[in-house]
Amino acid sequence: MQMAEEYRATGKFAEKILPWVVCFSASLFFFYEFIQGNMFASIADSIMYDFKVQADKMALLSSIYYMSNVIFLLIAGVVLDKYSTKKTIIIAMSLCVLSTFILAHAQSFYLALFCRFVTGIGSAFCFLGPIRLASRWFPPRRMALVAGAIVTMAMTGGMLAQYPLTLLVTQVGWRDALMQVGWLGFGMLIFMFWGIIDKPHGTVTKFAKNEGLFVNAKKAYKNRQNLRAALYTSLMNMAIAVFGAMMGSLYLMQRLGVSKEEAALVNTMLFLGAIIGGPVIGWISDKFALRVLPMKIGVIASLITLLAILFLPVSVMVMKILFFLLGFFTAAQVISYALVAESSSPLITATAVSVISILTQGGYIIYQNLFSLLLINHGGVQMLNGVPVYSLGDYQFAAMILPIGLILAFLALSGLKETYGRHIVIEG
Questions:
Q1: Phi and psi dihedrals of 302, rounded to 5?
Q2: Where are the domains of the chain?
Q3: C-beta neighbour count of 189 within 10 angstroms
Q4: Closest C-alpha among 105, 103, 112, 157 to residue 130
Q5: What average pLDDT does the chain have?
């Protein structure tokens, strides 16, 4: 019998604990997908060696995950607003786990591309699903904290994809490491089946009407409030997209002159900062019932920290602190999800939030490929043991897109309307 039946009659549990259990179970999907999305920072050199490709092809293999993600995000919100969130999440997670097992055995670069594409399809639902459930199980005044907790789960997965996965790859190779990632996903899938509940007992879930699906999608995608918040979140994610998901360890090896394992440990601090920053900043936003002001403070602090990372002469320990702070301050992006949820009709929560996910995941495609393009074309590549190696000057040149992105993120906040932690539908 499922958890919903076991605790059907309980009062305090259902009110206080069960909502967190449900959201935690669903957030395991987001956790798993952040392993998938960020693991190339740990296996990039192995991938380039095994498939005999350079940074541009490796960036394609990494970013095709986000390409399919963006494509299917266009319908993911509509599907989640119309059909069972639990069933949708379970099916999507199953696709991701299966494609991970296949990728671990892929001998063709194009089969690897296909596997990443399929994983991206499933991951289109990994954040919208938990947010959709959270909007049913929690009141609006707690959405920033809950969104922060959900993002924290994801960042924990991203952190696991750094130093721990690097060590695992060093010991068993990237293919066996991916097999273990696949079995981890299978175990999570079983837990999610029992832990996810569509709605609190005794409530009626309202779904968007069939005839209004595309009308609602049009409203969500053309809403300037949603678009501004989404652009802000996308640009605040640029450091995760470039450093955390793909090139962080390789950049740090050149910047600090350290081993791959030590560089991965520094890169891990980016995710640790986000893990702590998400719920802390979300709690502060809920506490003071403010959304826009902490978003502004977050982007300014992120820019100052990033400039220190790129240009100050620092030790490894100081770089760890700076990467932690960058992750912490960029976690202000979690407020965007609460802002959009509060600004939209409850009937189209997932569709509205999907605007953020589309621009964020689409940003990964642009940022990763733009970074690799600038990296390759700035200087001459050298081959070392069959792996392309780029100079620090090349990395520094390509990394200039990061501070520019944060400046644009601050500008995106112009005209954003404050909701003060209340459900206020903002049209247009």
A1: -65, -40
A2: 11-194+212-412
A3: 18
A4: 157
A5: 84
